[in-house]
Design brief:
Length: 110
């Protein structure tokens, strides 16, 4: 319940303040969002399985975002940024869809 309220408040603040993203952060933001979504779907799955731990979620959320952004940064430094970005998206996409499938199976018992 509190999470839904916090989400609504966060979205309202974002719509009201119209935050801007610095140009240097632009390439990393989409990857960070996908990494954050991976942590969120993992948390939903853990919550449904009754094994959710807020500390694990926060650490997972921050670590996923930082590691994904670091991999993309490293790829940019090596001149292969788009290839490593694609690799991060594929890996995290597989994890997100795996968690989504587990959530669906849990909810619909199928």
């Amino acid at each position: 319940m509190y999470a839904a309220i916090a989400l609504v408040i966060g979205v309202a603040i974002g719509l009201f303040l119209h935050p801007t993203v610095p140009d240097w952060l632009g390439p990393y933001l989409p990857i960070a969002v996908i990494a954050a979504l991976d942590a969120v779907f993992g948390a939903i799955r853990a919550n449904l399985a009754k094994i959710f731990d807020a500390k694990v979620f926060v650490i997972s959320f921050i670590a996923n975002v930082l590691v994904a952004a670091f991999i993309v940064f490293l790829g940019d430094q090596l001149g292969v940024g788009s290839q490593l970005s694609t690799a991060v998206v594929v890996v995290l996409g597989i994890r997100i869809f795996g968690n989504a499938a587990a959530i669906r199976r849990h909810i619909f018992k199928a």
